[in-house]
Amino acid sequence: MNNNKWIRRYKIIGARRFSNYWWASIICIGSFCFLFTGLASYLNISIFIFKSENIQFFPQGLVMSFYGLLGVIFSVYLWLTIFWSIGSGFNEFDHLKQKVRIFRWGFPGKNRRINLYYDFTEVEGIRVEVQQGLNPKRNIYLQIRGKREIPLTRIGQPLTYEQIEKKAADLAKFLKVSLKSDI
Question: What pLDDT is attached to residue 160?
Fold first, then answer.
């Protein structure tokens, strides 16, 4: 967060989180192990540590090759989302220009940059959504005229109830709008 009195900027991490690096690495390693074991059973040889004496190619080796190939494709997708930093960006609230700017990086193409601008007059309020349970949700939404709601919080990194409440209250006070809560 930028601590300027007139401009507030909140950085959004996006796909470059530790959990994405972790799962992309685990899936990549596991899928290559499956793929090499399937190939070793087809060629009837041992590749590195992948011994295939007890695995017949049809059906076990073929299935392992198929799952290995799917895992490689999925891990490439995860690594590309990390490399392109999908979902990262910032939320900027400028009191001097009376503007709200929401910026995010998307997938490559003509809409790679997602850049939304709103006047302070278009902002109706801030809404907090809190759901407890097995998969808790703690989100802050910017409510725009026309019933649009734009999420302002990061996905995958839930804040504590106190943190989200304080952040939403500070933002509502800064924008001079109402604060609504769905608890």
Answer: 80
Q: What is the pLDDT of residues 73-123, one digit of tens each?
A: 999 999 999 999 999 999 999 999 999 999 999 999 999 999 999 999 999
* pTM of the entire predicted model: 0.81
Work out the angle at residue 160's Cα, subtended by the Cα atoms of residues 156 and 163, and round it to the nearest 5 degrees. 110
Burial call 112-125: b when 16+ CB within 10 Å, e when fewer: eeeeeebeeeebbe
HSE toward the beta carbon, residue 156, CA cutoff 13 A: 11
Asked if omega into 59 is within 30° of 0 (cis), the reply is yes
Supply 104's token pair: 């995010």
Tokens of 79: 């690594």
The answer regarding whether domain 88-181 maps to CATH 2.60.40 reads: no
Token pair in block for residue 144: 């725009």
> Shortest CA distance to 100 belongs to which of 151, 153, 173, 175?
175
Task: Return the half-sphere exposure (C-beta side, CA atoms, 13 A cut-off) of residue 174.
Answer: 23
Q: Residues of CATH 2.30.29 domain(s) within the chain?
A: 88-181
Q: How far apart are CA 91 and CA 168, in angstroms?
A: 13
Rounded to whole angstroms, the Cα distance separating 179 from 171 reads 9
pLDDT at 55: 79
